[in-house]
Predict the 3D structure of the following.
Amino acid sequence: MSDVRLASPRGKWILLTTILGSSMALLDSTVVNVALPRIGRDLDADLAALQWTVNAYMLTLAGLILLGGSLGDRYGRRKVFVVGVVWFAAASLLCGLAPNAEVLIAARALQGVGGALLTPGSLALIQASFHADDRGRAVGLWSGFGGVGAAVGPFVGGWLVDGPGWRWVFLLNVPLALVCVPVALRHVPESGDGRAHTRFDVLGAVLAAVALALITYALIEARAATVAVALTAVAGLVAAVAFVYVEKRRDDPMMPPDIFASRQFTAVNLVTLCVYAALGGFFFLAALQLQVVVGYSALGAGVALLPTTVLMLLLSARSGELGERIGPRVPLTVGPLLAAAGMLLMLRVGPGASYVRDVLPALLVLGLGLVTLVAPLTATVLGSVSTARAGLASGINNAAARAAGLIAVAALPLLTGMGEEAYRSAPAFDEAFGRAMAMCAGVLVVGAVVAFVTVRRPPEDCRRPECRTHGSVLAPPLEGDRARKRLA
Protein backbone atom coordinates (compact mmCIF):
# COMPACT_ATOMS: atom_id res chain seq x y z
CA MET A 1 0.00 0.00 0.00
CA SER A 2 1.63 3.24 -1.14
CA ASP A 3 -1.24 5.67 -1.63
CA VAL A 4 -1.40 7.48 1.74
CA ARG A 5 -1.28 11.24 1.34
CA LEU A 6 0.85 13.30 3.70
CA ALA A 7 -1.94 15.78 4.45
CA SER A 8 -4.37 13.05 5.50
CA PRO A 9 -4.87 12.13 9.19
CA ARG A 10 -3.37 8.71 8.51
CA GLY A 11 -0.35 10.27 6.84
CA LYS A 12 0.30 12.44 9.87
CA TRP A 13 0.01 9.46 12.20
CA ILE A 14 2.48 7.46 10.09
CA LEU A 15 4.94 10.34 10.14
CA LEU A 16 4.58 10.76 13.92
CA THR A 17 5.14 7.05 14.51
CA THR A 18 8.27 6.80 12.40
CA ILE A 19 9.75 9.97 13.89
CA LEU A 20 9.14 8.73 17.43
CA GLY A 21 10.69 5.35 16.68
CA SER A 22 13.80 6.61 14.94
CA SER A 23 14.26 9.37 17.54
CA MET A 24 14.49 6.79 20.32
CA ALA A 25 17.50 5.16 18.69
CA LEU A 26 19.04 8.47 17.66
CA LEU A 27 18.72 10.02 21.12
CA ASP A 28 20.40 7.12 22.89
CA SER A 29 23.33 7.19 20.47
CA THR A 30 24.06 10.82 21.42
CA VAL A 31 22.92 11.56 24.97
CA VAL A 32 24.75 8.71 26.71
CA ASN A 33 28.14 10.42 26.21
CA VAL A 34 26.98 13.30 28.40
CA ALA A 35 25.97 10.88 31.16
CA LEU A 36 29.22 8.90 31.26
CA PRO A 37 30.98 10.66 34.18
CA ARG A 38 27.89 10.26 36.40
CA ILE A 39 27.44 6.63 35.34
CA GLY A 40 31.08 5.93 36.17
CA ARG A 41 30.77 7.52 39.58
CA ASP A 42 27.46 5.89 40.54
CA LEU A 43 28.42 2.39 39.34
CA ASP A 44 32.10 2.67 40.34
CA ALA A 45 33.05 1.90 36.73
CA ASP A 46 36.49 2.30 35.19
CA LEU A 47 37.21 3.82 31.78
CA ALA A 48 36.90 0.45 30.03
CA ALA A 49 33.35 0.07 31.35
CA LEU A 50 32.47 3.53 30.03
CA GLN A 51 33.90 2.58 26.64
CA TRP A 52 31.74 -0.54 26.61
CA THR A 53 28.69 1.48 27.64
CA VAL A 54 29.02 3.34 24.34
CA ASN A 55 30.38 0.50 22.22
CA ALA A 56 28.01 -2.30 23.22
CA TYR A 57 25.18 -0.36 21.59
CA MET A 58 27.18 0.58 18.50
CA LEU A 59 28.43 -2.99 18.12
CA THR A 60 25.07 -4.69 17.70
CA LEU A 61 23.58 -1.76 15.77
CA ALA A 62 26.41 -1.67 13.22
CA GLY A 63 26.56 -5.45 12.89
CA LEU A 64 22.82 -6.04 12.42
CA ILE A 65 21.39 -2.95 10.71
CA LEU A 66 21.54 -4.47 7.22
CA LEU A 67 19.87 -7.64 8.42
CA GLY A 68 17.19 -5.57 10.16
CA GLY A 69 16.09 -4.07 6.85
CA SER A 70 15.84 -7.51 5.25
CA LEU A 71 13.71 -8.84 8.10
CA GLY A 72 11.21 -6.04 7.56
CA ASP A 73 10.92 -6.83 3.86
CA ARG A 74 10.33 -10.51 4.55
CA TYR A 75 8.04 -10.50 7.58
CA GLY A 76 6.39 -7.08 7.28
CA ARG A 77 7.90 -3.68 7.86
CA ARG A 78 5.36 -2.58 10.46
CA LYS A 79 5.68 -5.83 12.37
CA VAL A 80 9.48 -5.69 12.55
CA PHE A 81 9.39 -1.97 13.36
CA VAL A 82 7.01 -2.57 16.28
CA VAL A 83 9.14 -5.48 17.51
CA GLY A 84 12.17 -3.18 17.34
CA VAL A 85 10.43 -0.44 19.34
CA VAL A 86 9.25 -2.88 22.02
CA TRP A 87 12.68 -4.55 22.15
CA PHE A 88 14.41 -1.16 22.40
CA ALA A 89 12.08 0.00 25.19
CA ALA A 90 12.54 -3.23 27.17
CA ALA A 91 16.33 -2.95 26.86
CA SER A 92 16.11 0.71 27.88
CA LEU A 93 14.17 -0.27 30.99
CA LEU A 94 16.90 -2.76 31.83
CA CYS A 95 19.53 -0.03 31.30
CA GLY A 96 17.65 2.27 33.67
CA LEU A 97 17.42 -0.40 36.35
CA ALA A 98 20.96 -1.77 35.94
CA PRO A 99 22.55 -2.42 39.36
CA ASN A 100 26.09 -2.51 38.00
CA ALA A 101 28.18 -1.77 34.91
CA GLU A 102 28.03 -5.36 33.63
CA VAL A 103 24.24 -5.37 33.43
CA LEU A 104 24.24 -1.90 31.86
CA ILE A 105 26.66 -3.02 29.14
CA ALA A 106 24.59 -6.13 28.36
CA ALA A 107 21.42 -4.04 28.21
CA ARG A 108 23.11 -1.56 25.87
CA ALA A 109 23.96 -4.43 23.51
CA LEU A 110 20.30 -5.45 23.55
CA GLN A 111 19.35 -1.84 22.80
CA GLY A 112 21.48 -1.99 19.68
CA VAL A 113 19.55 -5.03 18.45
CA GLY A 114 16.30 -3.09 18.82
CA GLY A 115 17.88 -0.11 17.06
CA ALA A 116 18.91 -2.33 14.14
CA LEU A 117 15.27 -3.38 13.72
CA LEU A 118 13.59 0.00 14.03
CA THR A 119 16.09 2.35 12.36
CA PRO A 120 15.83 1.02 8.77
CA GLY A 121 12.19 0.11 9.42
CA SER A 122 11.11 3.68 10.11
CA LEU A 123 12.36 4.90 6.73
CA ALA A 124 11.05 1.81 4.92
CA LEU A 125 7.56 2.42 6.34
CA ILE A 126 7.52 5.95 4.93
CA GLN A 127 8.65 4.84 1.50
CA ALA A 128 6.19 1.94 1.44
CA SER A 129 3.19 3.89 2.74
CA PHE A 130 3.13 7.33 1.11
CA HIS A 131 1.96 8.26 -2.36
CA ALA A 132 4.83 8.85 -4.76
CA ASP A 133 3.98 12.57 -4.96
CA ASP A 134 4.34 12.96 -1.17
CA ARG A 135 7.14 10.51 -0.47
CA GLY A 136 10.03 12.93 -0.89
CA ARG A 137 8.45 15.52 1.41
CA ALA A 138 7.62 12.85 3.99
CA VAL A 139 11.23 11.62 3.99
CA GLY A 140 12.40 15.22 4.33
CA LEU A 141 10.15 15.83 7.34
CA TRP A 142 11.25 12.52 8.89
CA SER A 143 14.95 13.35 8.52
CA GLY A 144 14.42 16.97 9.59
CA PHE A 145 12.57 16.14 12.78
CA GLY A 146 15.11 13.40 13.45
CA GLY A 147 17.79 16.07 13.21
CA VAL A 148 15.91 18.22 15.70
CA GLY A 149 15.87 15.20 18.02
CA ALA A 150 19.63 14.87 17.63
CA ALA A 151 20.05 18.54 18.52
CA VAL A 152 17.75 18.39 21.54
CA GLY A 153 19.18 15.07 22.76
CA PRO A 154 22.33 16.28 24.57
CA PHE A 155 20.36 19.11 26.18
CA VAL A 156 17.63 16.76 27.44
CA GLY A 157 20.22 14.20 28.46
CA GLY A 158 22.21 16.73 30.45
CA TRP A 159 19.07 18.04 32.15
CA LEU A 160 18.04 14.52 33.13
CA VAL A 161 21.51 13.62 34.42
CA ASP A 162 21.72 16.75 36.57
CA GLY A 163 18.08 16.43 37.65
CA PRO A 164 16.37 13.08 38.28
CA GLY A 165 19.52 11.14 37.38
CA TRP A 166 21.25 9.37 34.49
CA ARG A 167 18.89 6.39 34.61
CA TRP A 168 16.14 8.59 33.18
CA VAL A 169 18.18 8.98 29.99
CA PHE A 170 17.13 5.37 29.32
CA LEU A 171 13.78 5.24 31.12
CA LEU A 172 12.48 8.08 28.96
CA ASN A 173 12.26 5.62 26.05
CA VAL A 174 9.53 3.60 27.78
CA PRO A 175 6.76 6.24 27.57
CA LEU A 176 7.83 7.07 24.02
CA ALA A 177 7.35 3.42 23.09
CA LEU A 178 3.98 3.33 24.84
CA VAL A 179 2.85 6.09 22.48
CA CYS A 180 4.59 4.76 19.38
CA VAL A 181 3.42 1.14 19.39
CA PRO A 182 -0.38 1.66 19.61
CA VAL A 183 -0.26 4.37 16.95
CA ALA A 184 1.75 2.09 14.65
CA LEU A 185 -0.63 -0.83 15.10
CA ARG A 186 -3.70 1.32 14.50
CA HIS A 187 -2.62 3.74 11.75
CA VAL A 188 0.41 2.35 9.88
CA PRO A 189 -0.36 -0.05 7.01
CA GLU A 190 1.58 -3.29 6.81
CA SER A 191 3.90 -3.73 3.84
CA GLY A 192 6.50 -6.17 2.63
CA ASP A 193 8.29 -7.39 -0.44
CA GLY A 194 6.86 -10.56 -1.91
CA ARG A 195 10.10 -11.08 -3.82
CA ALA A 196 12.11 -11.30 -0.58
CA HIS A 197 12.09 -15.09 -0.53
CA THR A 198 15.78 -15.95 -0.42
CA ARG A 199 17.57 -16.98 2.74
CA PHE A 200 18.82 -14.42 5.20
CA ASP A 201 22.56 -13.99 5.55
CA VAL A 202 22.46 -14.74 9.27
CA LEU A 203 25.95 -16.26 9.19
CA GLY A 204 27.37 -13.11 7.62
CA ALA A 205 25.67 -10.90 10.20
CA VAL A 206 26.94 -13.06 13.07
CA LEU A 207 30.50 -13.13 11.73
CA ALA A 208 30.50 -9.34 11.26
CA ALA A 209 29.24 -8.75 14.80
CA VAL A 210 31.67 -11.31 16.29
CA ALA A 211 34.64 -9.79 14.44
CA LEU A 212 33.75 -6.30 15.66
CA ALA A 213 33.16 -7.55 19.21
CA LEU A 214 36.47 -9.43 19.47
CA ILE A 215 38.54 -6.62 17.95
CA THR A 216 36.82 -4.06 20.19
CA TYR A 217 37.45 -6.20 23.27
CA ALA A 218 41.12 -6.61 22.35
CA LEU A 219 41.59 -2.86 21.91
CA ILE A 220 39.83 -1.94 25.15
CA GLU A 221 41.63 -4.59 27.21
CA ALA A 222 45.01 -4.25 25.49
CA ARG A 223 46.42 -2.39 28.50
CA ALA A 224 46.57 -5.75 30.28
CA ALA A 225 48.93 -7.11 27.58
CA THR A 226 47.92 -10.71 28.33
CA VAL A 227 47.97 -13.78 26.12
CA ALA A 228 44.15 -13.89 26.28
CA VAL A 229 43.91 -10.40 24.81
CA ALA A 230 46.32 -11.29 22.00
CA LEU A 231 44.35 -14.44 21.21
CA THR A 232 41.14 -12.40 21.16
CA ALA A 233 42.66 -10.00 18.65
CA VAL A 234 43.73 -12.89 16.42
CA ALA A 235 40.28 -14.46 16.70
CA GLY A 236 38.70 -11.15 15.69
CA LEU A 237 40.86 -10.94 12.58
CA VAL A 238 40.03 -14.57 11.72
CA ALA A 239 36.33 -13.80 12.07
CA ALA A 240 36.74 -10.79 9.77
CA VAL A 241 38.47 -12.93 7.13
CA ALA A 242 35.76 -15.57 7.50
CA PHE A 243 33.12 -12.88 6.96
CA VAL A 244 34.73 -11.83 3.67
CA TYR A 245 35.02 -15.48 2.59
CA VAL A 246 31.36 -16.22 3.39
CA GLU A 247 30.14 -13.10 1.59
CA LYS A 248 32.07 -14.07 -1.54
CA ARG A 249 30.56 -17.56 -1.65
CA ARG A 250 26.92 -16.84 -0.79
CA ASP A 251 24.27 -16.34 -3.46
CA ASP A 252 22.52 -13.68 -1.36
CA PRO A 253 25.20 -12.01 0.80
CA MET A 254 24.44 -9.26 3.28
CA MET A 255 27.34 -7.22 1.85
CA PRO A 256 27.94 -8.30 -1.77
CA PRO A 257 31.70 -8.00 -2.45
CA ASP A 258 31.08 -7.01 -6.07
CA ILE A 259 29.60 -3.69 -4.94
CA PHE A 260 33.17 -2.66 -4.08
CA ALA A 261 34.12 -3.14 -7.74
CA SER A 262 33.05 0.48 -8.03
CA ARG A 263 36.22 2.46 -7.36
CA GLN A 264 34.13 5.46 -6.37
CA PHE A 265 32.08 3.47 -3.85
CA THR A 266 35.22 2.01 -2.27
CA ALA A 267 36.88 5.42 -2.10
CA VAL A 268 33.94 7.21 -0.50
CA ASN A 269 33.65 4.45 2.10
CA LEU A 270 37.32 4.93 2.97
CA VAL A 271 36.57 8.62 3.45
CA THR A 272 33.58 7.63 5.60
CA LEU A 273 35.75 5.43 7.80
CA CYS A 274 38.22 8.27 8.38
CA VAL A 275 35.57 10.91 9.05
CA TYR A 276 33.36 8.93 11.40
CA ALA A 277 36.25 7.33 13.27
CA ALA A 278 37.41 10.84 14.13
CA LEU A 279 33.89 12.00 15.01
CA GLY A 280 33.13 8.96 17.14
CA GLY A 281 36.30 9.47 19.13
CA PHE A 282 35.75 13.22 19.40
CA PHE A 283 32.21 13.14 20.78
CA PHE A 284 33.07 10.35 23.22
CA LEU A 285 36.02 12.29 24.67
CA ALA A 286 34.73 15.86 24.31
CA ALA A 287 31.78 15.28 26.65
CA LEU A 288 34.20 13.89 29.24
CA GLN A 289 36.73 16.71 28.71
CA LEU A 290 34.12 19.40 29.28
CA GLN A 291 32.98 17.81 32.54
CA VAL A 292 36.15 16.27 33.97
CA VAL A 293 38.63 19.00 33.00
CA VAL A 294 36.71 22.21 32.33
CA GLY A 295 34.21 21.61 35.13
CA TYR A 296 30.90 21.77 33.26
CA SER A 297 27.78 20.08 34.55
CA ALA A 298 26.18 17.39 32.39
CA LEU A 299 23.64 19.95 31.18
CA GLY A 300 26.38 22.47 30.47
CA ALA A 301 28.33 19.93 28.43
CA GLY A 302 25.22 18.94 26.47
CA VAL A 303 24.36 22.54 25.64
CA ALA A 304 27.98 23.34 24.82
CA LEU A 305 28.05 20.70 22.06
CA LEU A 306 24.83 21.91 20.40
CA PRO A 307 26.32 24.32 17.81
CA THR A 308 27.70 21.51 15.65
CA THR A 309 24.33 19.82 15.29
CA VAL A 310 22.47 23.11 14.84
CA LEU A 311 24.76 24.08 11.97
CA MET A 312 24.09 20.75 10.29
CA LEU A 313 20.34 21.22 10.64
CA LEU A 314 20.41 24.72 9.21
CA LEU A 315 22.87 24.23 6.38
CA SER A 316 23.00 20.56 5.33
CA ALA A 317 20.36 20.98 2.60
CA ARG A 318 22.23 23.93 1.07
CA SER A 319 25.48 22.00 1.25
CA GLY A 320 23.84 19.21 -0.74
CA GLU A 321 22.76 21.69 -3.42
CA LEU A 322 26.28 23.12 -3.60
CA GLY A 323 27.73 19.63 -3.94
CA GLU A 324 25.43 18.91 -6.86
CA ARG A 325 26.59 22.06 -8.64
CA ILE A 326 30.35 21.78 -8.15
CA GLY A 327 30.72 18.03 -7.64
CA PRO A 328 31.73 16.13 -4.47
CA ARG A 329 35.52 16.29 -4.75
CA VAL A 330 35.97 19.77 -3.28
CA PRO A 331 33.44 19.37 -0.42
CA LEU A 332 34.82 15.96 0.53
CA THR A 333 38.33 17.44 0.62
CA VAL A 334 37.60 20.75 2.31
CA GLY A 335 35.06 19.35 4.80
CA PRO A 336 37.44 16.95 6.58
CA LEU A 337 40.14 19.64 6.63
CA LEU A 338 37.76 22.08 8.33
CA ALA A 339 36.72 19.40 10.81
CA ALA A 340 40.41 18.67 11.50
CA ALA A 341 41.00 22.37 12.18
CA GLY A 342 38.07 22.35 14.62
CA MET A 343 39.59 19.44 16.51
CA LEU A 344 42.97 21.16 16.68
CA LEU A 345 41.22 24.22 18.10
CA MET A 346 39.94 21.94 20.86
CA LEU A 347 43.53 21.79 22.11
CA ARG A 348 42.80 25.17 23.71
CA VAL A 349 39.98 23.67 25.79
CA GLY A 350 41.50 22.93 29.17
CA PRO A 351 41.18 24.03 32.81
CA GLY A 352 39.56 27.46 33.01
CA ALA A 353 38.71 27.52 29.29
CA SER A 354 36.26 30.18 28.15
CA TYR A 355 33.28 28.90 26.19
CA VAL A 356 33.07 31.92 23.87
CA ARG A 357 36.82 32.21 23.30
CA ASP A 358 37.90 28.54 23.29
CA VAL A 359 35.05 26.01 23.01
CA LEU A 360 32.59 27.72 20.66
CA PRO A 361 35.06 28.56 17.85
CA ALA A 362 36.26 24.95 17.77
CA LEU A 363 32.72 23.58 17.55
CA LEU A 364 31.70 26.10 14.89
CA VAL A 365 34.64 25.20 12.66
CA LEU A 366 33.97 21.49 13.24
CA GLY A 367 30.31 22.01 12.44
CA LEU A 368 31.11 23.84 9.21
CA GLY A 369 33.32 20.93 8.23
CA LEU A 370 30.51 18.45 8.79
CA VAL A 371 28.04 20.65 6.93
CA THR A 372 30.42 20.77 3.99
CA LEU A 373 31.01 17.04 3.70
CA VAL A 374 28.02 14.99 4.91
CA ALA A 375 25.46 15.72 2.18
CA PRO A 376 27.96 15.35 -0.71
CA LEU A 377 29.25 12.14 0.88
CA THR A 378 25.77 10.61 0.86
CA ALA A 379 25.14 11.78 -2.71
CA THR A 380 28.43 10.24 -3.84
CA VAL A 381 27.62 6.92 -2.19
CA LEU A 382 24.28 6.76 -4.00
CA GLY A 383 25.79 7.93 -7.29
CA SER A 384 28.58 5.37 -7.30
CA VAL A 385 26.29 2.33 -7.77
CA SER A 386 23.29 1.49 -9.91
CA THR A 387 19.93 2.89 -8.80
CA ALA A 388 18.71 -0.60 -7.93
CA ARG A 389 21.48 -0.93 -5.32
CA ALA A 390 21.19 2.55 -3.81
CA GLY A 391 19.49 1.32 -0.62
CA LEU A 392 22.12 -1.36 -0.14
CA ALA A 393 24.95 1.13 -0.75
CA SER A 394 23.52 3.54 1.82
CA GLY A 395 23.11 0.75 4.37
CA ILE A 396 26.72 -0.38 3.94
CA ASN A 397 27.96 3.20 4.24
CA ASN A 398 25.89 3.78 7.37
CA ALA A 399 27.16 0.56 8.95
CA ALA A 400 30.75 1.44 8.03
CA ALA A 401 30.42 4.81 9.76
CA ARG A 402 29.10 3.22 12.94
CA ALA A 403 31.80 0.55 12.92
CA ALA A 404 34.45 3.25 12.50
CA GLY A 405 33.14 5.13 15.52
CA LEU A 406 33.06 1.88 17.49
CA ILE A 407 36.72 1.12 16.76
CA ALA A 408 37.77 4.70 17.51
CA VAL A 409 36.13 4.71 20.95
CA ALA A 410 37.91 1.43 21.69
CA ALA A 411 41.32 2.46 20.32
CA LEU A 412 41.81 6.12 21.24
CA PRO A 413 42.20 5.68 25.02
CA LEU A 414 44.78 2.97 24.33
CA LEU A 415 46.69 5.01 21.76
CA THR A 416 46.74 8.12 23.96
CA GLY A 417 47.87 6.30 27.09
CA MET A 418 44.73 6.77 29.18
CA GLY A 419 44.74 4.64 32.29
CA GLU A 420 41.68 2.89 33.73
CA GLU A 421 41.06 5.78 36.12
CA ALA A 422 42.04 8.60 33.74
CA TYR A 423 38.58 10.16 33.70
CA ARG A 424 38.81 10.68 37.48
CA SER A 425 41.94 12.83 37.13
CA ALA A 426 41.62 16.18 35.33
CA PRO A 427 45.36 16.61 34.56
CA ALA A 428 45.77 13.05 33.23
CA PHE A 429 42.66 13.22 31.10
CA ASP A 430 43.52 16.66 29.73
CA GLU A 431 46.93 15.49 28.59
CA ALA A 432 45.53 12.41 26.85
CA PHE A 433 42.69 14.44 25.31
CA GLY A 434 45.21 16.70 23.58
CA ARG A 435 46.93 13.70 22.02
CA ALA A 436 43.56 12.29 20.96
CA MET A 437 42.52 15.50 19.19
CA ALA A 438 45.77 15.54 17.25
CA MET A 439 45.21 11.93 16.20
CA CYS A 440 41.61 12.58 15.15
CA ALA A 441 42.74 15.58 13.12
CA GLY A 442 45.38 13.43 11.42
CA VAL A 443 42.79 10.80 10.47
CA LEU A 444 40.58 13.53 8.98
CA VAL A 445 43.49 14.82 6.91
CA VAL A 446 43.99 11.30 5.57
CA GLY A 447 40.30 11.24 4.62
CA ALA A 448 40.69 14.56 2.80
CA VAL A 449 43.67 13.27 0.83
CA VAL A 450 41.79 10.10 -0.15
CA ALA A 451 38.83 12.20 -1.32
CA PHE A 452 41.01 14.58 -3.34
CA VAL A 453 42.85 11.75 -5.10
CA THR A 454 39.97 9.36 -5.77
CA VAL A 455 36.52 11.02 -5.73
CA ARG A 456 34.99 12.17 -9.01
CA ARG A 457 31.60 13.60 -10.02
CA PRO A 458 28.86 10.92 -10.23
CA PRO A 459 26.81 10.52 -13.42
CA GLU A 460 24.07 13.08 -13.99
CA ASP A 461 21.31 10.45 -14.01
CA CYS A 462 22.28 8.84 -10.70
CA ARG A 463 20.10 8.52 -7.62
CA ARG A 464 19.84 11.71 -5.53
CA PRO A 465 19.50 11.74 -1.73
CA GLU A 466 16.03 12.11 -0.27
CA CYS A 467 17.26 12.98 3.24
CA ARG A 468 18.26 16.58 2.63
CA THR A 469 18.29 17.71 6.27
CA HIS A 470 20.49 15.75 8.65
CA GLY A 471 21.53 16.29 12.25
CA SER A 472 23.32 13.14 13.41
CA VAL A 473 27.03 13.55 14.01
CA LEU A 474 27.74 9.83 14.41
CA ALA A 475 26.53 8.38 11.09
CA PRO A 476 25.46 9.61 7.64
CA PRO A 477 21.76 9.61 6.77
CA LEU A 478 20.26 6.24 5.93
CA GLU A 479 18.67 6.26 2.47
CA GLY A 480 16.07 3.66 1.56
CA ASP A 481 15.33 1.92 -1.72
CA ARG A 482 12.60 3.69 -3.65
CA ALA A 483 11.77 0.44 -5.39
CA ARG A 484 11.35 -1.07 -1.93
CA LYS A 485 13.63 -3.97 -2.64
CA ARG A 486 15.61 -5.70 0.04
CA LEU A 487 18.50 -3.93 1.72
CA ALA A 488 20.48 -7.13 1.65
